[in-house]
Design brief:
Layout (H helix, E strand, L loop, with lengths): L4 H14 L5 H4 E7 L13 H15 E14 L2 E12 L3 E4 L5 E5 L5 E13 L2 E9 L1 H7 L7 H16 L4
Parallel strand pairs: 1-7
Antiparallel strand pairs: 2-3, 3-6, 4-5, 6-7
């Protein structure tokens, strides 16, 4: 049975969660762009499989047991929409970056689990992902992980995590 563009998009999400990053070269176009990378480490802001792999490493550094459970997939020409639930457990700091690629915020690990719905959008070219963007429930995730509302102790841990992240930048 031939692989469809929708199958390729779902596979790319599975790879992001599983960590089988060598396989990204099969599903991500060399010129692919992740429109969501603006808050991610600088290595995520490039093109192609290497940038997508950097995003996967960044997510997996913060979230153990990361997975995407796909609920619905819709295709219209070269555009694929995937409705899913992203879940995991925060085992490491989650570090957000500003437009200059500098650490903007760091959320220390809480050990809590989360599950939030998301919509991912993919544009396809030659059977590979060439563009990605998403709509996420970041507030829901932050609430489930205990980031908001922040306690004074958590704000202190955030400041310490931010200092550590600035001293040890992501590759």
């Amino acid at each position: 049975m031939p692989t469809t563009d929708a199958d390729t998009c779902v596979r790319s999400m599975t790879i992001m969660g599983s960590g089988d990053l060598d396989e990204l070269t099969r599903v991500v176009h060399p010129k692919a762009v992740n429109r969501e990378a603006k808050d991610e480490p600088p290595a995520c802001r490039g093109e192609g499989p290497a940038a997508f792999a950097a995003t996967a490493r960044w997510l997996r550094a913060a979230f153990a047991d990361l997975r995407f459970d796909v609920h619905d997939v819709m295709a219209d020409g070269d555009l694929i929409a995937v409705h899913c639930t992203m879940s995991g457990r925060q085992a490491g700091p989650f570090v957000a970056y500003d437009e200059r690629g500098e650490v903007a915020q760091a959320f220390p690990p809480t050990g809590r689990t989360f599950a939030v719905t998301q919509s991912h959008w993919f544009r396809m070219k030659d059977g590979q992902v060439v563009e990605h963007w998403a709509n996420r429930d970041d507030l829901g995730m932050a609430t489930q992980l205990g980031w908001v509302p922040p306690t004074p102790a958590f704000l202190w841990r955030m400041a310490r995590a931010k200092r550590h992240a600035r001293r040890n930048p992501a590759p």
